[in-house]
Amino acid sequence: MNSKQLILSTLALLLSTGLQAQPGDSSPADTLRLTLTEAKEYALQHSRTIKSASLAVQKAERAKWESIASMLPHVDASAGYNNFLGYEAEVEMGPAKMPIAMNPYGTLSVQATMAISGMQIVALNMRKLAIEMSRLSQNASEVDVKANITSAYHGVLIAEESKKLVEKSKGNLEALHQSTQTMLKVGMAEQTDVDLLGVQVTNIENTIRSTERNIELAYNSMRLMLGVEANTPIKLTQSLDDLLGNTEAAQRCNAQFDESQNYNVQLLDKNIELNEKQLSLQKWTYGPTLAAFYNYSNRTYFGKSEGFNMAPPHTVGLTLNVPIFSSGERLSKVRQAKFDVETAKLNREDAVEGLRVQEKQLRFTLNSAMETYEVQRQNVEVYERIFANSTQKHEHGTISSTELTTISNDLLQAQSKYISALMELFSAQTSLLKLLNAL
Prior knowledge:
The protein is of the alpha+beta class. Helices cover 64% and strands 14% of the residues. It starts with a helix and ends with a helix.
């Protein structure tokens, strides 16, 4: 899930009305109090995604030892019992026949084997690469977790800011509604004026209730990312002003894009190496394989006399297997592996070029979002002054309730655009920091 999708999913009504309320000031002792940095660190320690990635690294390390073990001696032992149920073999010695006792016996065998080839050595190197790729995948997962937590943290704060704005408008309208009711009693206002303002107050109350439900969804989403229980209270200890005034984040956004520090690019580099090892593996199918074995065998008879036993107790042997002709099968596999190497290199070049374009677009988006945010912030201030002046005019009877309702709606729209601009600003910043690996 990317940053923008995360915010949009948790703040579904943000653009139309604005969002949520903060949890109360009187927090219980077990409340999880977090700055943005602490939230990211907590998520990295408790995230199930990171734990799963860590298990993948451990699995890859075990697989490496599997390859090492394939080149070390293997020892097997076996024991058996044979009974011929009284049968006797006969050997002809001229005109006479000599019986051979077939007494029951038990056997014990121990065999040690060892085989080594160039393919095994290449396979071991491939296992080592797999470990490195698993660790890079874990690092990439950590970046994703930090980006998602950052977006969730921003989303909650934006929601709380939105609710503050809407509640402020509600307070103004309630005061105006009460004063208009007073004016109605003395004949200075009409019932329709009171009704219009009453509807406006009801609409804002519905907006606040919807906002409160949405903010709880946002907190639940954050709890899921943090890996805590669903009923764990959370208190965010940084404000929007803290994050907007964070010069360190702005400096990180100004850093140059170093593609070699991007984990996805590093994974593509390792993928090229992996394909090159695969090519070496196919080339080694032309190479010989050397195998050695040692076998110990002991037979114990349970009859009155030993039977006929020609098996030696100790045996050693060497085998050198040299491939000679495969009708072009090995050559075809080598050529296919070469194509895979070239394809991996092209994929890497294409991905890097895409990231460079993405960086430029993200910087453009961030600059545009900063400009839009500043404009919308000023617009809210302007519309708040207009609404305050219009309220005074309405109290003096110089404008109608319909005109004041229109101005109130304009203020709500300005607040909604301001909240949307905040969302776009933080989303663009998070996306750029994620690309720069600077979260």
